[in-house]
Amino acid sequence: MPNLPTEAWFVIGAIIFVTVVAVLHALASAVRLETHVHDTKLKAISLQRAYAIQLAELEAAKQLDNEIEVVGQGSVEQAA
Question: Could you tell me the CA-to-CA distances from 9 to 5, 17, 48 in Å, in that order?
């Protein structure tokens, strides 16, 4: 190894330390992003399922409403 002054070794060590911390930060950010994307996909699937259930319930209610006949006052003969 070259014969460098102590201050130079401290600078080299600091540069290596900062580089390692930066790489670890980048890895942590990538993992955090992937976790966020995964959680968002799960939330989207949950919302799609809830929407499909609501849509099915709405269609069932429409079918029930179509089967009911509303009778007005004019359509019933009064028995005397």
Answer: 7, 12, 58
